From TrEMBL:
SUPFAM superfamilies: Six-hairpin glycosidases. It comes from the Eukaryota. Residues 270-290, 335-401, 419-438 are annotated as: Disordered. Residues 380-392 have a biased composition (Polar residues). InterPro entries: 6-hairpin_glycosidase_sf, Glyco_hydro_76. Gene3D superfamilies: 1.50.10.20. The lineage of its organism: Eukaryota, Fungi, Dikarya, Basidiomycota, Agaricomycotina. Keywords: Hydrolase, Membrane, Transmembrane, Transmembrane helix. The chain crosses the membrane at residues 291-316. GO terms for molecular function: hydrolase activity. This is Glycoside hydrolase family 76 protein.
Amino acid sequence: MAYNDSDFLVMAGEFWACANNYTVSDRDFVDATTPIRTTKSFSLSQMCSDLSMGGGTFELKGDEVTALTADATSIFFLLSAYLGEVTSNQIYIDAAKRSLGFIRTQLLSRQGLVMRGIYADQNRSCETLFDTYPYNTGFTIEALSILTGLSDEESDQEQMERTIAEATNTGGWQNGNGVVSWRGGYGDPHLIRALSTVYVRTPRTSELSAYIKSYLGVQFNAVTELATSGGSSIYGGQWNGPPVDKFEADNQTAAVQVLLAAIPLSEESTSPITPVNPVESDSPPPKKPSAAGAIAGGVVGGLTVLMMIGIAVIFIRRRRYRRYEPPMVSTFDVGHVQPIPPRQSVGKGRKNSAPTTPIYHVKERTSQRPTPSGGEASTPAFQATPVRSSTYVAEPERPVNQMTTAELVQVLNGRLQTGQWSEEELPPEYPQSHVGSA
């Protein structure tokens, strides 16, 4: 993917506009002609716990989908933040703030983790889905790391630090050795990606940077020593082991995120983290890339496919953890607009503001490598002190190459929500665009 290609930016803007039509704004409570009001006949709850429901996002249209979920809201939050950074368009920035406001007031648990969702149907009386998943919290952390560079709100930085502390210390998401392990012992790549994003945007002299580096180092050592064996490039989904022989795309994708997250750690360390069996080479070492390059790649390259990845995440999570699934019991108005006109060139994002002093206290670890024998990783010495404070969408009958981007997103989302997807099935064709070369 070429950087600064206006076609990709326009596509990301179209994804955003599609998701914005699923996002509740103050206008939806007074105007019966909005996209949400015209597809959902039930009465929306304007307030829950005396706080606005504006800013939450539905996964699908239709009366059967009545919950504003963390799956949809956190991904829309992240896309808005990235678009706000790359374009400096205030509409995107305000949309990100509204998503964060909804997460803060309606979805944060007492421990500071992002809960699964809340029902917006007045008949459900603000019933909350209390489950917490690491990927939703990961999306929120990543979006917060972007938003802190776009606003002067110290509360955003503080929120990010508290959420990181909780996410990396909650017992249900990692084992006693500090290796990410939840729902059957699987790792979660989205939490790792979020922490890596925070790391490359945080001054290296801060305690937060040192803490994240230590945490990511444990994941890298576990993946390279416990989740694979004998120099194999096949990784298991359980990062604490045992290794597996069968190739599975989900496991490989999750492991790759950990390997990518370790790159900036080794580049800036006097004691680089190395794999178990490094490949020797006589060629000179590559030139060290700057942090700006990493950020540019994450911003421009990532937002093009972010919404499609988010939809796939919802499906993959439901497929992998279906047997573990618990029962589902448990004021700014952006309007419905599309800020990016066709073929708008990419603008420069705002410069990140320096983070405030983190709230972490990092202890020196005796060994950063887990011990591969017996399938147990070495017990990490780091500790953080946190501050507590489906329905299917009918597909159009015309050929897919004649559909709009929004319609393609809806078709894919509908297929994923109902499980009508196979790993062998190719994705739908997309309207042809003129893509620039790198």
